[in-house]
Amino acid sequence: MAPGRAELAKIHIAKKELGFSDDAYRDVLRMRYKKDSAAKLSSAQARNLVEHFKTLGFSVKRKNNSKISPKYDDGQMRKVVALWITLGNEGVVKNKSDQALQKYVKRITGKDNLRWCDGVDLDRIIESLKKWANREDVELE
Length: 141
Hints:
The protein has helices spanning 5-18, 22-33, 43-55, 74-89, 98-109, 119-135. The chain contains 6 helices and no strands. α1 (5-18) runs parallel beside α3. The longest helix has 17 residues, at 119-135. The chain is an all-alpha fold.
């Protein structure tokens, strides 16, 4: 199986970080795998190449794109709001206001605002709302 985009990206980042010229990079590919392009490697070979680059000084850096908190997922936040609205429309939540949702978030997570929640907090809120819906026999899609 050919390497995925993430594996190829790591290889090319390593090549750049290690300062390989195109010729030197292709020499490594030819000597180690008898290939002239990383795209022609198998997934196992691509992982092996990344490991080889690590022995030469390359280090994989995790990128945190989240502007709010680690493991934050905008889809999780939308899910919380959707569950809150659904419970409000079913009459389970008596006050559907944003303030009421923020108070619920504070009670569940200890954080004053939904936007300050990380992925773990959002999961906790989602599961809490699902259980509440289940207790009240509200059908969720």
